[in-house]
Amino acid sequence: MGQSIKLADDIVKDVRFEAKLLRRSVAKQAEHWLRIGQAIEQSPSFDYTRIKAALAGKFDADNLSIEEGVIFDEKIFSALEETSDAERVFFEKRQKAGLGVGEDEEGNLIYK
């Protein structure tokens, strides 16, 4: 019996896109990716504790296997995309003062 789960909108968007490309249902695409993730985690060349140690700076990320490195990179990039409450407050203050709050793809300051 199937069960509903909540997923972030960006993940659902990616699943829908890939499902359409591969002519799968959204549910079958999500199951496929879940099984791939499960297989990677159960692989003898994959150790999630090593990834956690590398993320904490207690293990040299250069010593991770290729599979571990993929997950490590994903976690790092995901963390870089997240904005903390302190960062939001900082940029709100800059925006109210009419100062730049970032750069666009061409390197121009963004004020909004």
From TrEMBL:
Pfam families cross-referenced by the UniProt entry: ParD_like
InterPro entries: ParD-like
Highest taxon listed in the record's lineage: Bacteria
Official protein name in the record: ParD-like antitoxin of type II toxin-antitoxin system
Organism for this UniProt entry: Paremcibacter congregatus
